[in-house]
Structure formats: structure tokens, C-alpha cells
Write a structure and sequence with these properties.
Length: about 425
Amino acid sequence: MLRRLMTKNTRNILLLAVGILIGLSLGLARGVLADKPEALGKDLPWQDARLLAEVLERVEREYVNPVDDHQLLQAAIRGMVSSLDPYSAYLDGDEYDEVKISSSGQYSGVGIEVSMEDGQVVVVAPFEGSPAAEAGIRSGDVIATIDDVAVNTTTLGDTIGRMRGKEGTSVKIGILREGSAEPLQFTLKRSRVQLHSVKSELPEAGFGYVRIAQFSETTGDELIAALRALRKSNGAPLKGLVLDMRNNPGGVLEAAVSVSDAFLDGGVIVSAKGRTPESKFEMSATPGDELDGAPIVVLVNGGTASAAEIVAGALKDHHRATLMGRTTFGKGSVQTVMPLGGDRAIKLTTSLYYTPSGVSINHRGISPDIELERDHEPSAVAPAVPPAADAPLLQRDPEVKRAIQELKVPTVSGRGGVTAAVRYP
């Protein structure tokens, strides 16, 4: 998902229009409005407003169970926005909080990544340095209770919400652990947790690997720190880099621009077109290449979307990287998060974006320079027994191994990107 914030003026106009429509609908439902009102203006479809009011009145009066006006209107708003396209949405308080957390990359809680597996809330991993990690919570632990109350196994969001809270407050978590006869109890003090979107390692001397899972406000700074750490571990400048953006759903637009800028000396990174002045923009790279022209292979697949496609498109169009994998998802639109009253918001598609070559990838995706077999197809060289989860990266991920092999191919290049490969028989 690609997100931006909205200016105050545009937000006020939208609030006024929605307020007028809802207010008139409620008035109509009470039989207040008999004729076409002058206040609606010539452009507002007052007949549809009357129809909405009539439907509300019928549902309220005749539906088999009592219904609440507030819930009906919330559902009407949600349906109105979601009908526009798959990415526009009305966000209630909890949903808006989740967007803010994913965008900012931080929240107050205990620092656990969890998933729902077979009706149990399972710890995927505690975040490094978090209260959960320091207390000894492990991957594979099952969360059974929070503050002595059983977790809700029908919705993961409820469990996550109960573990979050004000910084400095405590929460008691009951854990079921394989090998332990009795549940384990952990009392954790909530703290500020940083969600890290970038992971890196040096799988082979001279060649770095960076994985970007999503784009938050901190991703650009995390990338720079990761590249510098790789150079330090290598003891010399990197000979090449694998940038892994497989199954990266996107995120904050500015973060994608920052990541692209880290590898480009100049030129357009992305441009966008929409109906309002704020939705039309062009963003360009600044001088300086963190890799000083060393080759890059970007791993992509059908789950590479939105902000991740901006990075892939910019590096490909500027001949700065080789794309390897499968055609990307093809989400070429920008969503703007527009705050509303009551800690709610709408996420509205406001622009289509274009790669530096002026191409819209919406519903098309970006084709890789080197196509690999599909995810569901077994590799001809795959081992009979899958490697262990803690095996070295090049053993457990053949696509990363293939990318590093590509980086070793001698190239003819100028500073800023590969222009031609020279292969020797």
C-alpha cells in the first residue's frame, strides 16, 4: 500500500460534503425535508440523499432485529468509500491506529510478532531488545492469557490490542511452551517498540544482502544504517548487493523515494497525476550513491507491490539494478490518508504514479530482467530435504544464491549502473 497525508484545506472540503449528506439523510429519515432543498446545491444528488434516508428509515422500522442509527451510517460510509476501488477504505479508530503504527514504525507495547495458527495465538518472534525478548519469550510460544483472561482465538487484533498500551504500564502474559507442564507467566512493562523493516547480512565476503519487508517512515534511515554495517563487516566497499523486496506490500511513499535515492545520483524517481494540485508531483534523486556504483540485483515477485514497485521501477529505468524474479503485482496508485473527526480517517486513492520512463504499471506490474520459475513450481535443483530454518542464507534460499551468482558476472558499466554484461564461455 502506498500512503500519503492530506492537506488541511482538502480535508475540510471533504468533511463538509460528508457532513451535509449525512445530516440531510438523518433529517429526511425523520420526515423533515419535503422538497428539494436549496442548501444541497445544484451538484449534490439530492434524490439519492432522499433514497438513502428512505432506506435508513425502512431498515430502522422494519428489520427483524433492532438496529442502531450510528452503526447503519458507519456501514453506509464504509460501503461508499470501499466501492470506489480495492484500496480506498473508511478507517475506524482501531484501523486508523494500525495505519499510523505501520507508517511510523513504532508503538508502545511488549514487542512480539504473533500469528494465528490452528486456533492458537503463536509467537512468531520477539523483536530484538523488546520487553518480550528480554523476559525470555520465544518463537513458538503460545499466548494463552493476557492479564489472567483467556485470549480471543477468533480475532488476532483483540490479542494485539490488549498487549499494547501506555508506555511504562505492565501486562501479564500467560504462555504455553512445549516441554513445560505448567503455563509460564511473564509480567512485562510496556515500552516504545521500533518495528524494523530492514534486515541485512553478509552471506558471502564482498556481497551484501538487504531485505525490506515494508516501507515505514524509518525505512530510509534503516537502509543507510544497514549498508554501513555491511561495509564495516566486510572490511571494504561491497562488490555487490542483493536487495530483496519479494512479498513487500509497500507502505509510505517518501520511504520508497528515500530508498531509491540511496542508490541513484540523480534523475526522476517517481511522478504522479491526480485531480488536485496536491496529487500531482514529481520526486527526484539527489547526488550520492551509497554503493558507489556497485551492481545491484533486486529480487521481486507477484507480492512486490506499490511502494516496492516504485523502487524497482526507478532502479530498473535508470539501469541501476537488474530485476530478478517474477512480474510484480501492478499497484500503480497512491492512497492518501485523510483524518476525520473522532480519531477516524478515510484512505482514498488520489493519484496514479509513473516510473521515470513515464510508464504506469497499474494492473500491469514490472517485468524482471531475469525471470525465475514461479513460486509454486519446484526447482530442478531443490534439495530432497529442505534446509533447516537456521541454515545459512545461501542454503535455504536458492533465489538469493542465484542473485549473488549474477552479481559476479563481469560487467561493462559506468558509475551509476550496469550497461552491459560480458559473459565468458
